[in-house]
Amino acid sequence: MLEVLYQPYMKTAMAKGLSWQQAVRRHALPNAAIPVVTIMGFWVGLLIAGAVITESIFGWPGVGRLLVYSVKNRDYNVVQVIVLFISCSMVMANLAVDLLYGWLDPRISIEKRNE
After folding, report:
1. Within 13 A of 26's CA, how many CA atoms are on the CB side?
2. CA of 87: how far to CAs of 25, 44, 91, 99, in Å?
3. Is there a contact between 94 and 40 (Cβ–Cβ < 8 Å)?
4. Phi-psi domain of 113 (left: phi exceeds 0; alpha: psi -120 through 50; beta: other)
5. Which alpha helices (DSSP H) does 1-115 contain, by range?
6. pLDDT digits (tens, 9 = 90+) for 75-104
């Protein structure tokens, strides 16, 4: 956030007559939020992968422990469903991150190309 506050567009926003709070809310927060959204999308994958390890170590019932149990017992149908669930959740997390990028910064959007 500190890097964003001292960018030239913040000085321009202040010169246009915006108050400090308005300039921060309209210009600084969306630009500073993009790296945070990226990290949060990455954490979704870590949480799902961490569930397998945590549930296996502590013996908690859950999808991670079920996955380990199914692999040990060669129950391929359950393994396929859990892997499909994990991959769909990762795709949905990446889609949410991409949509948030477009909402936070309108310059990041899908362009129609004339080819």
Report:
1. 14
2. 35, 11, 6, 18
3. no
4. beta
5. 2-5, 8-15, 20-23, 29-58, 63-72, 76-104
6. 999 999 999 988 888 899 889 998 888 888
For 59, the token pair is 């013996």
User: What is the value of pTM for the model shown?
Assistant: 0.70
Token pair of 105 as six digits:
């910064």
CB count in 10 Å sphere of residue 52: 18
Contacts of 112 (CB under 8 A, 6+ apart): none
The residue written with tokens 């321009």 in the block is: 12
Nearest to 63 by CA among 83, 88, 93, 42: 83
